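#struct-help
A.M.: can someone run this one for me? Single chain, 317 residues.
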Amino acid sequence: MADPSPTIGALMVGGIVGATLYGLTCSQGFMYYNRGVKDSNLMRGFVLALWLVDSLNVILMGHMLYYTFITRYGDPSVFSTPLWSLVAMVLSTAIVSFMVRGMYIKGIWHLSHEHPIITGVLALLSLFDFVCGIALSVKGFRVSEGELADLKVYLYLNFASAVLADGAVAGTLFNLLRGARTGNARTDTALGRLMLYTVNTGLLTVADAGVALITFAIMPDNFVFLTPFMVLSHFYTNALFASLNSRTLIKSSDHVVSVNLSNVSPPRFPGSSTSTSSPHNGQQLQIPIQTVVQTRVDGSGSDNEDLKSQYSLAKAL
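D.P.: on it. Structure tokens below:
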């Protein structure tokens, strides 16, 4: 490697941005567990497992930066072979991306009314990217000093498969959410926000993987592509956590109306006194009021489809 400066700068930028995004991940995770959404224990455990894998990614990144800038300070040969923590980051990123896409594909399964072809193709694309990540990790652990050129094919496959899988998932999710209109203005407005939020965060992973692919293709002799790669795992985690937290936009809530009995005048009947004392004077009565939406299905195809879309949307969320 002729000039290590681009690689050093890429590692520094990637480390700073990655640590910042991990802070957002922790904030999103805290919001998820305190937002009040009653998910199953399996789902909450899944979120915790995803956060742990993403935390492992940060630990590996810290080891790589410490070893490069402190332990082997000023030694350009440190870039002649991939460090084990960097290779482990490839594996952890592959696991995170596979888990996040799995959750999105689960939502697509319900939104598409359990369409086997759509979800099957997306699952195969996600599985292919996961296999490419594993293959790159295995090859990275076995590569010897000065044999970095042997990783080019694996890197191309890994980045290209990530762009293809993320783009397919984001595009499919956008089309399905756009067609999941319920007819209720308030719900459709919130659904539009959710669609915009989910797709935009999903497109971030596509853009990040695309930048990694382009920078590696343009500058294959240095590690500039590590900047977008080091933050890719955190983009995936933040995208999913943000989507989970945004579900409260379309959740219905119960309202409680407080009525102060001391301010309520009793009805006056003939012969009743105008000054009425009550042992409950000053006490407040809380009356829970629930909004109930009734849907009348008259057997027509449009009503059935609307009801089916609302059910699928609820299952997906």
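A.M.: thanks! Residues 104 and 137 are 25 Å apart (CA to CA).
D.P.: also worth noting: The beta strands are 255-260, 284-289.
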